[in-house]
UniProtKB/TrEMBL annotation:
InterPro entries: Ald_DH/histidinol_DH, Ald_DH_C, Ald_DH_CS_CYS, Ald_DH_CS_GLU, Ald_DH_N, Aldehyde_DH_dom, Aldehyde_DH_Superfamily, Succ_semiAld_DH
Family as reported in the entry's similarity comment: Belongs to the aldehyde dehydrogenase family.
Organism: Stachybotrys elegans
Catalytic residues as annotated in Swiss-Prot or TrEMBL: 262
Enzyme class: oxidoreductase
GO cellular component, one term: cytoplasm
Keyword Oxidoreductase part of the UniProt annotation: yes
Entries under PROSITE patterns matching the protein: ALDEHYDE_DEHYDR_CYS, ALDEHYDE_DEHYDR_GLU
PANTHER family: SUCCINATE-SEMIALDEHYDE DEHYDROGENASE, MITOCHONDRIAL
Lineage top rank: taxon: Eukaryota
The name this protein goes by in its record: Succinate-semialdehyde dehydrogenase
GO biological process, one term: gamma-aminobutyric acid catabolic process
């Protein structure tokens, strides 16, 4: 702890206990698990190994707090969220250090993430007071109909490791704004950021039991099952793989919980013949290589019109040669490690599969063992074809895989040839084409001449097997509300 603490201005943000009912607690068993820096494999900290009984206590705390929190005036909830936002920004540098230590992303990227994460508390602090119902004309003139929107109850929130701050705040912000209480299962790979956020919630004055943060590694499946089957939990929000999402959805069916799932993607990135190639390059760098390709909205298949194919691919190769891979704390580092060895292995398998089926390696393609076992070189593959694993699986790594196409219809068919539909991107100067393609892509989010589409004001989510529900924007609060109809007789 001393090593990490020495990097922090406020060492009290580094928490190694779970936050339940306003107190810092360990697992009843006393068991812990290790958190490692993926760059160096150094031990960062140890966190509690919660089990089913520990999780039960957190759920009961949230349940007890909900009874009063749901009646808290919206303005009061808004002020708490705004205070939480302010505290995150005041502790920006320390939060970024914690994130880079456990996640590996370059420190500058962690700073950007914390700012983005805080913005959800600001956004939903403003939405808390704008939860409106309706009045409806009844067919019976002796009756009046109105609707009320009410908080759904205790929410189980299961967050991923790739954005350990933002993927939590994007769920907690609307939940608290709506009047719900939460039990947050922090990602085992990166739990310290979540615990630091809990400390700031405490400082913001959010009442005990409203926000609970629990951790587990070996017991992750057990804890997840408690959250998805417990009758007190009324809603579950999960960000992660499609496979795990299906498992959790099956478990949630036992109690018919309300769900919002943001699952895997296989994003197409289309460059048409009339595109501004410099703008497309900028968009691709933002979309493909952020967090070394470990985001659900990363471009996974890059489709380029044959007339500009060679030129654009060479532009990308020239650009990635300027990247600097290494420890996230290193000077000038642009890209860090993958989260663990299994992730690096999968990237390597995707490269070998593509090359065995005719792809051409233009850059990278190899692990970087001198940096550590979790590092893989920035890779560019050309002459990709349908049937390769990258067409069917989300790589979640630093591979730019290029496919050539000849017609607009061909590009759309290639883009939609997948079971998932989270994000899609395309670049064109033709305004009519922009409307046609945006409407034709089978995804929940489209970037038109832009490669970064995340914003607190934007509804984030997918279709098909990428899930359902939306996070962020004016729609993001709806998943934490129930609609009640009230009919009143006036005679």
């Amino acid at each position: 702890m001393a090593g990490m603490a020495s990097k922090l201005r406020d060492a009290s943000l580094l928490k190694t206990s779970c936050y339940v009912n306003g107190s810092w607690v360990g697992a009843a068993s006393g068991k812990t698990f290790a958190v490692e820096n993926p760059s160096t494999l150094a031990h960062v900290e140890s966190c509690p190994e919660f089990d089913a009984e520990d999780t039960e206590l957190a759920i009961q705390a949230a349940h007890a707090a909900f009874k009063s929190y749901k009646k808290t005036p919206a303005r009061t909830r808004a002020r708490w969220l705004r205070k939480w936002n302010d505290l995150m920004l005041e502790n920006l540098d320390d939060l970024a250090v914690i994130t880079t230590s456990e996640n590996g992303k370059p420190l500058a990227d962690s700073v950007t993430e914390v700012k983005y994460a805080a913005s959800f508390y600001e956004w939903f602090s403003e939405e808390a007071t704008r939860i409106y119902g309706d009045t409806i004309q009844a067919s019976n003139p002796a009756c009046r109909i109105m609707t009320l929107k009410e908080p759904i109850g205790v929410c189980g929130l299961i967050a991923p490791w790739n954005f350990p701050a933002a993927m939590i705040t994007r769920k907690v912000g609307p939940a608290l704004a709506a009047g719900c209480t939460v039990v947050i299962k922090a990602p085992a790979e990166a739990p310290l950021t979540a615990l630091a956020l809990a400390e700031l919630a405490h400082r913001a004055g959010i009442p005990a039991g409203v926000v609970n943060v629990i951790t587990a590694l070996d017991n992750t499946v057990t804890v997840g099952k408690v959250l998805t089957t417990h009758p007190i939990i009324k809603k579950v929000s999960f960000t992660g793989s499609t496979g795990v999402g299906k498992l959790l959805m099956n478990q949630c069916s036992s109690t018919l919980k309300k769900l919002s799932f943001e699952l895997g993607g296989n994003a197409p990135f289309i460059v048409f013949d009339d595109a501004d190639l410099d703008l497309a390059l900028k968009g691709l760098i933002a979309s493909k290589f952020r967090l070394s390709g470990q985001t659900c909205v990363c471009a996974n298949r890059i489709l380029v019109h044959r007339s500009v194919y060679d030129k654009f691919v060479q532009m990308v190769v020239d650009a990635v040669k300027q990247f600097k891979v290494g420890d996230g704390f290193g000077e000038g580092i642009t890209h860090g490690p993958l989260i663990h060895g299994r992730a690096a292995q999968k990237v390597g398998e995707h490269v070998k599969d593509a090359m065995s089926k005719g792809a051409k390696l233009l850059h990278g393609g190899e692990p970087l063992p001198a940096l550590g076992p979790n590092f893989f070189g920035i890779t560019v593959l050309a002459d990709m074809k349908p049937g390769m694993r990258i067409c069917e699986e989300e790589t979640f790594g630093p591979i730019a895989a290029f496919f050539a196409f000849d017609t607009e219809q061909e590009a759309i068919e290639l883009a939609n040839d997948t079971e998932v539909g989270l994000a899609g991107y395309f670049f064109s100067k033709d305004s009519s084409r922009c409307w046609r393609v945006a409407e034709a892509l089978e995804v929940g989010m489209v970037g038109v001449n832009v490669g970064a589409i995340s914003d607190p004001a934007a509804p984030f989510g997918g279709i098909k097997q990428s899930g359902f529900g939306r996070e962020g924007g004016k729609y993001g609060i709806d998943d934490y509300l129930t609609l009640k109809m009230v009919m009143t007789g006036v005679e």
